[in-house]
Structure formats: structure tokens, C-alpha cells
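As a warm-up, study this chain.
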Amino acid sequence: MATLVERAHELRPLIDEQAAASEQERRLAAPVVGALTDAGLMSMCTPSAYGGAETDPVTLIEAIEAVAIGDGAAGWCSMIASTTSSMAAFLPAETAQTIYGDPQVVTGGVFAPNGVGAATERDSVAGFAVTGQWAWGSGTQHCEWVLGGARCDDGTFRLCWFPHDDVDFHDTWHTGGMRGSGSLDYSVTDVFAPASYTMQPGVTPPVLDTPLSRFPNFTLLAAGVSAVGLGVGRHALDELNDLAQGKKPQYSSRTLAQNSFTQIELARAEAQLRSARAFLLDELGAAWTTISEGSAVTIEQRTAIRLAATHAATVGATVADAAFTLAGGTAVYDTSVLGRCLRDAHVVTQHIQTAPKLNEKIGQLLLGQDTDTSMF
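Now compare it with the structure written out below.
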């Protein structure tokens, strides 16, 4: 049977073919959603106890990257859905089996505590009546269950799972980049979330004690986001290489591939991208070895992964910029793959988990300064 990474590479022609439709629809095209779901690329972190792949972080990042080479938006949706599936380990077993036991079920949502919950009972079931609206609901329109963070009147912060039909979606996703990810706003109004369909981040211990359930959640998310940037950067350089073989700039008798400036800049960009990728995979691999041997991932390891992830996101945008510039006027059209890569790469650097401003906190940790690491 093909591995997850192999399946992701096999789907690249379909993903690439549907990328324009996803951009136009401002949500991931249905054939891509179906193909990614069937291949297990929307639930890579679902625990094996519920029939999932329970993928290790290195494989996860390589698979997300491979999807993103076809289309950044597809990689983004695969990343969100798969990292969300890791939260199954924190739900009561019966609830987790109900939601994640079907491999065709896709989940996603937003951690931010933009909802408010009132403790109540309905039909003798304890839970919370939740109202709220969340931005950046990537891929939520194709999710059977949608998550949202809520501050509840019992003093808890809870991540709540809502059935798709209880969620309202708002047409807010009009953007420059990642148009195909469908990252619109969504809301719930007085929707009841049974307590068993909620968990308290940082408080609820994992019901399943596995290496993946013990891997830091935000660290995994940051690595996943940066994997999209690596895939987009790879796509940009590959697209430039293809273009350079035949394109002759105006007033030039030589192709871009024969131009010394193109040669120098492409070589530099290739080195940057490969180095950033190796840095991230190396740090993830070391941390996974630590946790697989029964020890906790140290703050030093978490810091190194966050540094590598932030760097990878930045480099993904840098090489997409370089490819766009080297391509000349060809790249400015909406139909240009390089234009899409440029726009998508700069969305990756805007994510809270990979934004350049994180270097301040990372630098503080490297210098031994006290700082909040709750989201590391």
C-alpha cells in the first residue's frame, strides 16, 4: 500500500488541475476534497485506536508539503484538517469514536476563544450553550464537525465540536492569497455542545497515551503551517524552471535558463529552500525520537522547531518572490501559477504560528530570558 506521502504525490496532477477552480470558488474544489479524504490526507493524525493513521510529525510535514506543491490551498486544508484530527486523543473514547471512527469524516475549526458558553442541561445532558463567531475557518464548509474555542461561565476555556448543520457560514473570504482554502468566518448561535464534545486545552489530559498525543499541539500546528510554505516555494521554483526553458524575455535572444542572473538567483533560492526544509525535518525528527523513547519534548526542542518552522515559512515566501521576479511580466496575470504561489506564500507568513514577529519570543528563549511559552 502506498504511504501517505506517496499518495500525496500521486494526487498532485488532480490538485494542480483543480487549483484554478478552487481559486474561483474560494473554497477547495469538491474533487480535491474527495480525493484527499479518500487518501487519508485529511485525517493523518487520527489515533490508530479509532482506525486512523496516527502519523508521526515528519511524515505529516512531508505529506502536507507534497499536497501544497500541487496547490497551496489544498495543502492548507489538509494541514488544518489533519492537525485538528490529533485532538481526538483528548475526547472521551465514545465521542472520539463517534466523530473520528469514520475515515470519511473531516474536522476543522479555530482554537481562538471567540465564543461564549453558558453551562446548562438539555435532555438531561450536561453541556454548554455556545454563541460566537470565528474567522479563518479554513475548509470548514467541507467539515462534518467544526470546532470553536469558547470561554464558559464556569470559568473554563473549552474547545467545542459542533455538527456542520448547526454552523452558519459567512461569505467573508475575499483575499489575495489562499483563496481556495475557503477560510471564511463561521458562527453558532445558542448551539448546545454536550460536555463530552468539549475539551479544555492545556488542562484535559489525553485519553489515549501515545507519542503523538504527547507531542506539543501548537508545535505540531506550526510545523504543519510551515510545510505549506515549503510546498508553495517548491512549486514556485519548479514552475520557474519549466518556464525558463522556453521563455525568451523581450529584446533577448537567450532563454531565461541561459541568463546568468536567473542561474545565480535560482541556485540561491534552491539552497535556501532545501536548507530550510532540512532544518525543520531534522528538528522534528529529533523531538519525535525523544518522545518515542518516553521522554517529554524539552523547551529547547520546542524552541528549535518553532525557529525552524518560522524560518521555513519566511523562506517559502522569499523563494516565491524570487521566482515571481525572475519570471518577468508573465507572472503578473491572475492565470499565472507563479502569481498564485506568491500570494499563497505570503499568507503562510501571516499565520500566528509562523509570523516573523515570533522571532522575538524565539530570541528571548535562545537568550535565556523569561517569556510565555503556553502557545509553544
